[in-house]
Specification:
The protein is an alpha/beta fold. It has helices at 9-19, 35-46, 60-71, 83-88, 90-98, 125-129, 147-164, 174-178, 219-239, 260-274, 313-320, 340-350, and strands at residues 4-8, 24-27, 53-56, 77-81, 104-109, 140-142, 168-173, 180-184, 243-246, 253-256, 279-284, 286-288, 302-307, 327-331. It is globular and about 70 Å long.
């Protein structure tokens, strides 16, 4: 059992990553993720016995590719960025997916397009979940909604990345990043040796050589390569779905939200039930694979999808439910987070 502390989200997440064995951090400061590289920089200075290394890259492009190089040798490495930096890393994400590299990327969302603002937003759902880079690939995408869950999913991200030899995106937002909560920091993990990690480049003495492939030799060979990747993504989709459902037994209206917006919706659900309105909630935790199973068999209900965007996850919800006309959307843009009372008013419009 780890120690209980009162800590900011970004800092707690960084400490959790260190205890997960991620001693290599490559990044370029960008609000609202900057406390993560700052924490690693301080830890490198204050805890020399742990061999922590922070490298400030010249750009996010360089940081993503440094992560690729480090994880290809069987070491845990990560970067943390915001939307504009994540955009710059998309080429590297495509290459890491092709190369079966177990990278972990933290994206702390802020409003866009362009540089936008530095408040909380959820407008990067498409770029994270649908794969903003080149080709047919998927990243695992996990969305915490508390500082505690940020710590837990941080550690799980490394395990999933190595289990499937695939990049994992931990998708959070400015509200969670800056929030301070009581949290139990997980204990230090015992790590596999680099040579024990599938496909790691640790020298071929005594074993067959591994190759990092990101380009093909003709259509037939590259189709076979892609079909192998698709088989892996299918396996992930079958085994790694995560979601939370509350008050679903008698609900007439079902809220759907992820990340910090799920906390607001949870409060709105409680307020609605106090007024006699039967409201439940589905909170996707894995955004890819999306938890379609959470919506199976639900008929005759109304769904209200709430996002800090113009509407992105709502498209996946409409694909998951039996009748997309049952789905209503409410979104806020520009970094404005609605209060539970505002969401409650949207619920009442559906009654």
């Amino acid at each position: 059992m780890g120690e209980k502390v009162f800590m900011q989200g970004n800092q707690a997440m960084a400490e959790s990553a260190i205890r997960a064995g991620c001693k290599l951090f490559f990044g370029y400061p960008i609000t609202p993720s900057s406390e993560v590289p700052e924490y690693y920089a301080k830890a490198m200075k204050d805890r020399p016995e742990e061999n922590i290394m922070f490298v400030q890259a010249e750009t996010e492009v360089a940081a993503f590719n440094m992560v690729a190089g480090a994880v290809s040798t069987g070491h845990r490495a990560m970067t943390a960025t915001a939307g504009p930096g994540f955009d710059l890393g998309q080429e590297a994400m495509s290459f890491m997916s092709a190369a079966d590299l177990p990278a972990v990327i933290v994206e702390v969302q802020r409003p866009g397009p362009g540089d936008g603002e530095i408040l909380a937003a959820q407008g990067d759902y498409f770029s994270a979940v649908k794969g903003g880079g080149h080709g047919d690939y998927n990243n695992l995408v996990l969305a915490p909604y508390s500082v505690q869950e940020m710590c837990e999913l941080m550690q799980e991200s490394f395990e999933l990345a190595e289990k499937y030899c695939n990049p994992v995106v931990l998708l959070t937002d400015a509200t969670l990043a800056k929030m301070r909560e009581s949290v139990v920091i997980p204990d230090y993990k015992e790590l596999p040796k680099p040579e024990e990690i599938t496909n790691s480049l640790t020298g071929a003495k005594g074993r067959a050589a591994h190759k990092v492939a990101t380009c093909g030799d003709g259509a037939v060979q590259w189709e076979e390569f892609n079909m192998r990747l698709q088989a892996k993504y299918k396996k992930i989709a079958e085994n790694e779905v995560r979601y939370e459902a509350k008050n679903m037994e008698d609900a007439d209206i079902i809220l759907v939200a992820y990340g910090s917006m799920a906390r607001v919706c949870e409060s709105a659900m409680k307020m609605a039930r106090e007024e006699g309105i039967k409201v439940g909630m589905i909170r996707p935790i894995s955004l890819w694979p999306f938890p379609d199973v959470a919506f199976e068999g639900i008929t005759g209900k109304k769904f209200l999808v709430v996002e800090l965007s113009a509407g992105q996850m709502v498209q996946d919800v409409k694909l998951a439910v039996e009748n997309k006309r049952d789905v209503t959307f409410f979104g806020k843009l520009g970094g404005t987070t609605p209060s539970p009372k505002v969401v409650l008013e949207q619920i009442k419009k559906l009654v």
